[in-house]
Amino acid sequence: MPEVTIDPADWVCPLPLRETKRIIMGHGGGGILSEELIENLFLPAFGSGSGAGGPSRDSAVLTVPAGRIALSTDSYVVQPLFFPGGNIGDLAVNGTINDLAMSGAQPLGLTAGFILEEGLELELLGRIAQTMGKAADHAGVGIVTGDTKVVGKGSADQLFVNTAGVGVIPDGVDIGPDRVRPGDDVVVSGNVGEHGVAIMSVREGIDFGTVVTTDSAPLHGLVAAMLAADGLTGTRGGRIHALRDPTRGGLVASVVEIARSAGVGIALDEGAIPVPEAVASACGFLGLDPLQVANEGKLVAFVDPAATEAVLAAMRQHPEGAGAAVIGRVVAEHPGMAVGRTSFGTTRVIERELGEQLPRIC
């Protein structure tokens, strides 16, 4: 038999170089490279919050106080990855915390799953992971477990992030669309439209004359302050009847969803809705409705009018609720619909877009 010469350069799948500065397929293979990515990039970024299990384990063990559990998951595919005031990392952390907070829950822990495209720069991934760790630390919530997968070049747009969160709903807290009733005040926690415009300004390279930054922020502390101000829990139920974070579809999507779920009508005073001048100008230039532009650090509350003043006062004492305002009321008329009184004194039906005004904002 002739002698066979094996040339490693002819191998179909050459062994990856450990000194690489970019993601390679080996980082998703479950071997030494995967371990090094976790140990040297993710764990230092996520810090002590990962101690309950950590991204190096497939599950986490959490000590759960007595009470009801809230569970949420979301995926983040925003482009660009970085935008004024944040990036996909803190967006993923804050977005999942806020999903839990809208049920009145206080978060216990988060998971983080990454879909990484081959060729992604490790320095860029490290910056995003560091931002996630800082956001989780700021919110007082650990990233307790996670997963990493690598796909071939062209199979993903740099990176996607999936997060899940678990939280505990305190005894006596009962928040949901079924509790909304005619007479409730509609309260928003602050300016609307900032996140979507921040994304659009970078994505399209448009200069609006001023920098609009994302409003991305965790809202569980604000919700806790609102519930404490309400003061009614237990069998009587609270006077904060429902909460929503107006992300995709903006304020309009949230109020229409509540109107349809609760079988009530909602009347908004559009002049009372806080829309920053820069957002209004940008939306006018782009032909967008600011009430349908995404937010990532705002909430809409449906509150018994007997508690509105106390809840508003508590919100305005909190950094994430300093601009809180009453913007409308729940009514018995036109159930399932939201209407708005415009600044011209006319009334219009407020309806959701068929799709999205601004795709990939989260």
UniProtKB/TrEMBL annotation:
Cited Pfam families: AIRS (PF00586), AIRS_C (PF02769)
InterPro entries tied to this protein: HypE, PurM-like_C_dom, PurM-like_C_sf, PurM-like_N, PurM-like_N_sf
Annotated PurM-like C-terminal domain residues: 181-334
GO annotation, biological process: protein maturation
PurM-like N-terminal domain segment(s): 57-169
Domain of life according to the entry: Bacteria
Protein family (similarity comment): Belongs to the HypE family.
Protein's name in the database: Hydrogenase expression/formation protein HypE
Gene: hypE
